[in-house]
Amino acid sequence: MGRNKMxxxxxxxxxxAASMVITQAGQMSVFAKGATADPETxxxxxxxxxxxxxxxxxxxxxxxxxxxxxxxxxxxxAKKAEAETAKQEAEKANQAYIAQNTVVQTGYDTLxxxxxxxxxxxxNEIADLEAKIAQxxxxxxxEQKTSQEAEKAKQEAEKELANKxxxxxxxQNRLAAMKTPEELETEYNQATxxxxxxxxxxxxxxKEADEAKTALDTAQSDLTAKEDALNxxxxxxxxxxxxxxxxxxxxxxxxxxxxxxxxxxxxxxxxAELETAKADLQTAQQKQTDxxxxxxxxNLAYETAKTTKETAETNLANAQQAVTDTQNKxxxxxxxxxxxxxxxxxxxxxxEKNEAAIKxxxxxxxxxxxxxxxxxxxxxxxxxxxxxxxxxLEQAKKNLADFESKxxxxxxxxxxxxxxxxxxxxxxxxxxxxxxxxxSYQGEVAGxxxxxxxxxxxxxxxxxxxxxxxxECNEIRKKDGLxxxxxxxxxxxxxxxxxxxxxxxxxxxxxxxxxxxxxxxxGEAGTGASPFRGWYDYEKKQxxxxxxxxxxxxxxxNIVHPANxxxxxxxxxxxxxxxxxxxxxxxxxxxxxxxxxxxxxSFDNYYNNLKSVDAQHKALKDAVNNASGTTTKDxxxxxxxxxxxxxxxNALTSLQNQxxxxxxxxxxxEALVNEAKGSYNQAVxxxxxxxxxxxxxxxxxxNAEKGLNNAKxxxxxxxxxxxTASANVNTAKNQAEEAQNKVNTLNDRINNxxxxxxxxxxxxxxxxxxxxxxxxxxxxxxxxxxTATDEHKKASDVFNDAKATSDDAxxxxxxxxxxxxxxxxxxxxxxxxxxxxxxVSAQVESLETDIAKLAxxxxxxEAEKAKxxxxxxxxxxxxxxxxNKKAKVDAEAAPLKNVKVVLKDVLMNGSKAxxxxxxxxxxxxxxxxxxxxxxxxxxxxADLEAKNTAYNDKYNEYLTVKSNLAKAEANHAEAMKALxxxxxxxxxxxxxxxxxxxxxxxxxxxxxxxxxxxSAQTALGFYALSGVLGLAGVAFTGKHARKED
Length: 1045
Known about the structure:
By secondary structure, the chain is an all-alpha fold. It is 81% helix and 3% strand. The chain has 19 helices and 6 strands. The protein has helices spanning 13-27, 47-176, 181-262, 266-386, 392-406, 408-412, 417-424, 429-432, 441-446, 460-465, 467-479, 489-505, 532-544, 550-560, 596-626, 636-751, 753-909, 921-983, 991-1025; strands at residues 486-488, 515-520, 566-572, 577-583, 593-594, 1043-1044. A 6-stranded mixed β-sheet has the order 5-1-3-4-2-6, with helices on both faces. A hairpin with a 4-residue loop joins strand 3 and strand 4.
């Protein structure tokens, strides 16, 4: 925003006076303000008297106001004329000062150019040499780092190589203790073949055992069937035998009955027999009951015996399976016993090898310790010899201290930002106080600045970046036919603090009475993104189109205003803030003003010099940090002794580490041996226990076989008893039936004696026929029983043969399985031995490859270090030679730099400056002549300041009177308005007269209003006048994509 605002807290006297003019000129708007109320209207009957009195009073007030207005107007015209005269005097003084200042500036520029013609090539050469030193220092640091890293990598590779060799030796010893690959392969192949044969034998035995089991099962089934058939045949035969006996008894009974029936005493005999038969019936019935009870007991005993037999068969089968299971477990236990024995043997072998390695390492460590002691003695001697002279580090520190003492001022200014540059120019406290933070408002604004920090407007980088914008502004003014603006250090300082303030607050600080342009978000100078695209290009189009509002084209007006002769530019790159200040030189400020070219040359020399000092300082500090003794002394002996000592220590450490590893492994190996021994002992116990289980299972099997035989015998006994009991029941039943039949027959015989005699004859015939049939059936069943007996004997023989065959096959199967288990264990052990050999062999091969690579690495790192050391030596020599050359050029440039300082002193102080140190008669004469011109310019400047002060006083007097004039005009207008309001009130008077009076008053008021507008234009006329003293404008624009203020 183009802005001019008075600061009420802290201002500079000259700028304050100028800003008062500009503020009133730019902001003054005077408008008449009339009366705001009328007196109350009295009762209608007194209206005429009141109106007359009020009118007279109002007319008197108008008269008084007009008289006062006339007096004030005359006084204002007189003060304005005095101010115009004072202004003309100030303008003449300003022209004289500008003319003399041009003479001074021309003389300064000429002398400065003469000096620069000789100095600049030297400065360029110094910069080149410093750049070379800096680059060589960077290269030196890189080479030193390369050397150190190569040495470190070499030592690490050597340590790893020693470890790999020790590991390789252990593995090679382990291989040497093993059988050859051919032997291991042969053993494995033989074990595999034996295991295959054992598997084949086991499969065959399993097949035979299965076949024998099938045959045994078949024979058992057939024997059981034959036993059932034999038992049935026996039962049928015994039943037929009983039937024959029964039928024979029936024949005998029928014969006896018939004999008794034909006996004369037969009746009495029959009756006696009847009594006997009844008694026999009771006896037979009792026998039947007893026989039936006996049969029930026999059946129960048979079922019990049958269950016992079945249980015995199950027990035998379980016992046989137990024998098989325990035998398999025994085979597994024997295999595990062999495996654990192999593991125990291997663990013992590893333990013995480890102990042997420790013993060997102890001998090597003793030798290595002696070598370390000898190397330490040699190193101590070499170091003592080396330390007898000054160390490179001490030399480097001395060089650094000398440099810091010589360039203390430059080093302190590295972080001083723009303030350091202003101090180098000899700027007064007027300029430097801009950055002073205190309780004043300007001090508060200064608090937003962080001097010299990165991104701050006061950083040297941002200050250097401001130069293209200063050039662009002057290019614009040249195109418009305007003189170029000079660069004021005071304006530069103000621009910097205002830019930092605007970056935070987003607005003008209003701390200084300068014309100021602000912008945010623009880009590089001379491009389409430059802030001048908005400040100048856009607003110029607006201005050319007829828009002359300062609030909208103020940036443009600040840039092109002819009264602005000095400027300052700053940018704050954090948020892209751009600030430019405009003004003209002020006699109350001790400023340094340069052209853009002079400013750029001056600043670049300052900037490049500081960068050069900084680069040299960093190089010297790096030299201190990197000092290793190679700069001025030959440390080859120390280095070689140290390298040898380190190598011996590394070798000793490697051996000690190997021994420690071996000793640490000792407890682990002992634990492995103890664990293997425990596993082996447990395996032996397990084998014994498994063997005991096998014997127990075989005993149980024998007992089961015996139990089965006993159960079978008992079952046969019970079967026979059952059959006998069954036969006894049948016999008892038959006897009971016979007894019952006899009783019935005797009763029937006695009761039907004659008829029964005939019947007895018939019964005898029938009984004889039945007896003949029974005998025939018995003979047939006897043949069947004999055949079943033969078949049972044959089936029993087959079963016994199958049983023997099955037992034999199971025994062979158990033997083959035991053999197979052993062969499998041997094959697994052989396979493990082959795998172990292959694993160790592969590890040996891998280690040999690693060792070869490590050897190559060590060789490569030695070559890399040697090359780096060679480069370090060459670079050190080059840096020393270049530094010596630079010192000569510095000495040659020093007098010219002194002349530059004296020249600036002459520019600021004239004849008060000391020029005796120049030492060049021609330059001394020119400087003396310039002193004369500077003294003239300072005298003219003092005259200008006095006349400016006189003008300010006259102008302030005019402003006071002008203010009184405005008040008088306002009072007059207020009196006129009061009368107009009074006359325009509704009243019982002639309507035409009232309107006429109102028109008159309105006409007068309108005229005064025009007078007020004219007064505002007059004030704007003073705005044009203010160009002699300084310009500040206020412009607010919001029509651009970027923000401006």
